[in-house]
Amino acid sequence: MNTLLNSRLSKLILASAIIFSGFFASSAATRVYADSPVTSTAIYKAYLDVDIVAAAEKSGLNRTVADYLASSGNALDVKAAAINALYSDLAWSDREHAEEYSQLVYGKSTAALDKSALSAQQLFVIGYLKVLDHYLDPDITWITAAQKALPGSQTVALIHALAASQQNMDCSWVITEPVLNDAELTKDLRQGAVDIITDYMVLYKGSPCQQSGEEPAVDRLVNDILQDGVVLSIGQSAVLVKGNAAAIDSANSSVVPYIRNNTTMVPLKFISDKFGARIEVNTNKLEAAVVYLNQKTVVPKVEIRNGRTFVPLRAVMDIFKKQTYYNKGLIIITANIALDAQNPLNQQAAELIRKELLSLK
User: Fold this and answer.
1) What DSSP designation does 337 have?
2) Overall pTM > 0.85
């Protein structure tokens, strides 16, 4: 409770200090922290030529705006802008637009809604409303569910990053930069809106992203991951084992993970050795028996390549019951640390590990 009160108090003090400093600002151009990530990124301004966004700014949440947000045929980025416009006045305070919207559209509270029955866009609409309603201590569960349902949307990814940053402002740039640099996201948000987000979030660049006296959170996570597991990459023989550089097969650099028919294939002996398992390979039947923790598992349809046995990554996950992270060819297998591909801080840590692994080539 004290942590929550301190968090709320610090955010209120930050906002008050910025308003106060405005009365004494010098004529020199100075960049300062504004209120907070979700309240200082007015993306609706890039969409004021769209009637529904202008109407939301002028009239607030009403039946017309709610119907637009509920329609599956309307663009997601315009919905995001319209939601943002609902909070365009300068007098920020807790609101209940998510509940008002839920009553208008569904006739019930958000607590009574079945999330599994809602579309990804509806998860996003309610999620963004909930984040803005109680911005000092936002509920990000709905917007996180929306990101998992729409992993390729830049709009959703950036709004989720703002929400996550609201909970840890010092890490705002660490959380947002990977999203801005993700070339695989569909660019479904106007560049003007992206610029509004970038111009504010970059103010946090260089912030410590740490607790007092501790190393930066992302660096701490990277170290924990490296000490806990094994890191491989598609097409690369160099690996990281417990933080140390190594090779999958020091005698044969052609032994590397690969993708076959959309299935990631990994070297069985290398991984088995790292986790203390014993293997037996029947090359005639193309199957492998893995004995791990006194339990024997037979893996069918293995592949022999460059003199080594390869199995699907999924089989490794099932046998060893380890935490496995996969993203764009990067494979992280850990004993204790579960990484979420949708978590911005986890993404940042994974990308730093990827760079370290690539430097071993």
Assistant:
1) P
2) no
